[in-house]
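fyi for ur records
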Amino acid sequence: MKTIKAVPITETNFLQYGFLADIADPISAYGMGELPCVFHRDMAVMPVKDCTPPAFGSLKVGKRSMIVEDIEFHSACCEVMMPLDDDMVIYAGPASADVIELDKLEAFILPKGCLVIFRAGTWHGAPYPIHKDGTVLICLPERTYLNDTKKYLLNQADHIQIEL
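which gave:
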């Protein structure tokens, strides 16, 4: 089975797949006001194609083997993910014309409270919690999961092991 190594995520190494903002620890982000209340505004902006409202939901993910068995993308919109209660591993591959290029997948360690925005077309899947079962905040345009999700189950021979 092919393996890929998960690396700590940075704005630079994730840029081809989307955007990153450390929402829970906004040390370097512009802040308005002073303690006890500092507002860190516009830390990440999700591009939208039309006026479909953004919808927020949660994804419960169990601790499991870090094996990529499926992959998906949304052709017309971005997707936001933010782990709430554990650091997680995510994987991503560059947008393509509905051609899965497994050899281009990369894996990233995403700290809890750090938000990623996958660009439209970016290949990805459900994250893997590192320490315990977890919850991920998800934001997609309303009903995207029904009308703009292409998901593929991989043949067992194509599964990819992610290593820390």
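The longest helix spans residues 11-14. thats all i got for now
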